[in-house]
Specification:
70% helix; single chain; Growth Hormone, Chain: A; disordered C terminus; 521 residues; mainly alpha
């Protein structure tokens, strides 16, 4: 059968969603149920938000924005270190006086960037395994909180010209951020329904690209007018504040949330089915996962994505300095491709869900279409950049090359849920482990190739980047799949659902679970 297993069920999605928006009193899905005379009904009527799943997704998106904006900090500091005319490109005496007085070359900076991703690589697989069994929302929050706290230490390390200590702090940041995406995918597993997964996934993952949109201009302005070290302090403090907000609004599952309405809980439980059941009673089919062609091609896609993303996040300001922009202008121009990427990534979720719910294309074809457009245009854009030497034209094709890759967010990047929503956190840990080989490699390769910082050397970097994207898109078009894999199913779906004893939940949640959890047929 060439049609996805879930495709047949999607014809009734609209009707099912419509039916679930009403209860006996005519209230809409997600609204608090009318008071039935008990105190529990009054409690949730007073505290519920209309769509708690949307609130959780929005706060998670903000977290992704903050953590990825923070990753631009080192990139701008490196610009002031490597650019011999940095004193001429900042705007105030205070900013000039704050410039780091260190003697690091591009090879040393390449290793500094790579030290983060070495740590990042080491914790991906353990984090993916833990996120399958432990509360994902805590793993996600802990990753951001600890990394932001470490970010506050970096200005002192750099000012003291402690190169190896700076590398150590970046390595530790990588260690704690290695659990970021496994935790994030674990959150989405419980807080998105199949019919909304494209939009929810693209919203949160777009936050990673929006981080560059925010981070580059903010870092550029602060570095230009105040001083580079304040960029680190700002990001670190705001990230810690986010973690406090996350504690209020996030829980592992909808059934655990004190603010969710009865109707939204029932709607989400019905839509999600057995995919939301814990994995504690099942053995992870690791052999089947690691030999699955659809998973292996996602590994190559993740490698290509990380190659492009980290190249731009760490080296884009340095590349643009070839065209004699000020630090403030550099930050503004560096953000333009990422603005385009945010727009395409956000729209890709709506495009995917529209094509799916209207039965215009199968899930497999949707994922391949969006990945083909995103990576294909990126491949072409970077190839053209190898021939361009005018600053204005460079910005145009850099925007095309980076911006269009955003469409792939609702292509290969949420394909993990199609293959197995149950093991999505583990799948992203596996593919991201391979992907972060690219994260480690690209700063080192770029540092060596661009040692003399010439346009010709950057042309070589972009040619390699174009080739990596081309290989990834061809592989995904051949081996990619949107079908749920056989190893995703537990031995007995009904038995697993029935193993959830509602009486084990706290009193106010027990009745909610009793009403909402039904064995799937």
């Amino acid at each position: 059968m060439g049609v996805d297993k879930r495709q047949n069920g999607h014809q009734g999605d609209k009707a099912a969603a419509s039916d679930s928006t009403k209860d006996g009193s005519g209230s809409k899905e997600g609204d608090p149920v009318p008071d039935d005379g008990n105190t529990r009904g009054k409690r949730f009527q007073a505290k519920s938000f209309s769509r708690m799943r949307h609130v959780v997704v929005a706060v998670a998106c903000i977290g992704m924005v903050l953590i990825n904006a923070m990753r631009t900090n080192v990139g701008f500091t490196v610009l002031t270190i490597l650019d011999e005319e940095a004193h001429r490109k900042v705007g105030t005496i205070e900013a000039i006086m704050s410039l780091p007085n260190v003697d690091w070359n591009s090879k040393m900076v390449g290793f500094l960037h790579s030290s983060f991703y070495i740590g990042y690589l080491l914790t991906h697989m353990p984090a993916g395994y833990l996120a399958t069994y432990l509360p994902s929302y805590r793993i996600f929050a802990g990753s951001i909180l600890l990394s932001c706290a470490l970010n506050l230490l970096l200005p002192s390390c750099i000012n003291a010209d402690e190169y190896y200590l700076t590398c150590l702090v970046r390595f530790l940041q990588g260690l704690v951020e290695g659990s970021l995406y496994p935790g994030c995918y674990g959150v989405l597993r419980y807080w998105s329904t199949p019919s909304e997964r494209g939009r929810a996934g693209s919203t949160v993952l777009t936050g990673a690209y929006a981080g560059a949109v925010v981070g580059f201009p903010v870092a550029g302005m602060i570095t230009h007018y105040i001083g580079w070290q304040y960029v680190f302090y700002l990001n670190g403090c705001v990230g810690i504040l986010w973690a406090l907000i996350w504690i209020v609004f996030a829980r592992e599952k909808p059934s655990d949330h004190p603010f969710i309405s009865e109707n939204e809980l029932k709607y989400m439980t019905k839509e999600q089915g057995y995919d939301v059941i814990d994995n504690k009673e099942t053995k992870i089919p690791m052999k089947e996962i690691l030999t699955c062609p659809a998973v292996l091609c996602l590994c190559l896609c993740h490698f290509a994505r990380n190659w492009v993303f980290i190249l731009m996040l760490t080296n884009e300001p340095y590349y643009l300095s070839l065209f004699n922009f000020t630090v403030a202008e550099n930050g503004l121009y560096a953000s333009i491709p990422h603005v385009m990427k945010v727009l395409t990534a956000a729209s890709s979720g709506y495009i995917a869900d529209y094509l799916l719910l209207d039965n215009l294309l199968s899930i497999t074809h949707i994922r391949k279409l969006l990945t083909g457009v995103g990576f294909g245009m990126g491949c072409i854009g970077f190839f053209i950049l190898t021939f361009v030497d005018d600053g204005s034209i460079v910005l145009i094709f850099l925007t095309v090359a980076v911006g269009f890759t955003g469409f792939a967010v609702s292509g290969w990047q949420i394909n993990h849920y199609d293959l197995s929503a149950r093991y999505a956190s583990l799948l992203v840990a596996i593919t991201s482990t391979v992907g972060n080989i690219g994260s480690i490699t690209v700063p080192l390769v770029t540092g060596y190739i661009t040692f003399y910082h010439t346009l010709n050397s950057w042309s070589i970097v972009f040619y390699i980047t174009s080739s990596v994207l081309g290989a990834a898109v061809i592989t995904f078009l051949i081996f990619g799949s949107g079908q749920q894999q056989p190893w995703s199913n537990p031995p007995d779906k009904v038995q697993l659902v029935q193993q959830l004893d509602p009486m084990e939940a706290p009193p106010y949640k027990a009745e909610r679970l009793q009403d909402s959890i039904k064995p799937t047929s």
